[in-house]
Amino acid sequence: MKSPKQNIITRIGHGSIDGIWSLGVIARFLMQIVLRSGTSLRRFSLVIREIYASGVRSLIIIVVSGLFVGMVLALQGYQTLETYGSEQSLGILVALSLVRELGPVVSALLFASRAGSAITAEVGLMKTTEQLQAMEMMAVDPVARIVAPRFWGGVISMPLLAAIFSMVGVYGGYLIGVVLLGVDEGAFWSQMQSAVSLRQDVLNGVIKSIVFGFAVTTIALFEGYDSMPTAEGISRATTRTVVNSSLAILALDFVLTAFMFKGM
Fold first, then answer.
1. Shortest CA distance to 109 belongs to which of 62, 144, 146, 150?
2. Are 74 and 182 in contact (CB under 8 A)?
């Protein structure tokens, strides 16, 4: 009989091994996608269709969320800045918060919830109904024909959605700060323009959104491709996609922010 401490150590060991094994399988899956992307890149209409499915259909939730996040930022920021007599710096607070952090992170979380779950369910359903096996029997590579276009569609869509989120969020901050609370319009825009750096702020936000796009799309495709071919299996795969993508986004955000601030 094993003692309780031995059982705990055994479970931790098995969990660590399973985690490392899963990372290796995902890395191999990602390598296969990249190596077999020639078909989808040559027939770019396949990628355009997936950009529409992943990006355009996510616009509503991105725009509405960005508007309200910008408005809340302006309300909260104005109350804090007014205490120190710096309410004219509201534009800087809204812009930097959105471009550096909230734009890439929140849009990636929304993208994982909406587009990532849809990708997993779609690929998982193809596996359940044996469409992927049928393609292999017809000498059609399912990774090149099904997986790769969805991968590049998600990777391209994510930075565009993050940029739209930040833009709409700044407009929401303008509505609250300038129109509602009476902050000087010239000070709002001029201080924002002078404080936001293209390289240190905008470019870093774009890099974050691209990395998040790679992570979310890879996880969504892997969970769908690796799901059990049952209704319950697809349901669990979709749940794992949202949970694992959200954790990956937050962990990657910390790592990228640490490197970016270190290089400033």
1. 62
2. no
Following DSSP, what letter does each residue of 168-191 receive, concatenated? HHHHHHHIIIIIIT---HHHHHHH
Name the percent of the chain lying above pLDDT 70.
Answer: 96
* CB distance 173 to 73 below 8 Å: yes
Instruction: Give the C-alpha separation, 248 to 171, whole Å.
Output: 29
**Separation of alpha carbons 263 and 61, rounded Å:** 34
Q: Under a CB-based contact definition with an 8 Å cutoff, are residues 61 and 108 in contact?
A: no
CA–CA gap between residue 57 and residue 207 (Å, rounded): 23
pLDDT in tens, 51-92: 998 889 999 999 999 999 999 999 988 888 888 877 788 888
pLDDT of the residue at 109: 94
- Which region, left, alpha or beta, applies to residue 85 given φ > 0 means left and ψ of -120 to 50 means alpha? left
Phi-psi region of 197 (alpha: psi -120 to 50; beta: other; left: phi over 0): beta
| Cβ–Cβ < 8 Å for 229, 127 | yes
Per the document, the length of the chain is 264
Q: pTM of the predicted model, to two decimals?
A: 0.88
Query: How distant, in Å, are the alpha carbons of 99, 139, 187 from that of 159?
Result: 12, 34, 29
Q: Please say whether the dihedral angle defined by the alpha carbons of residues 160, 101, 113 and 40, taken in this order, is positive or negative.
A: positive
Q: Are 202 and 159 in contact (CB under 8 A)?
A: no
SS3 of residue 140 by DSSP: coil
Kindly report the backbone phi and psi dihedral angles of residue 182, in degrees, each rounded to the nearest multiple of 5, phi listed first: 85, 20
**What ranges do the domains of the chain cover?**
36-262
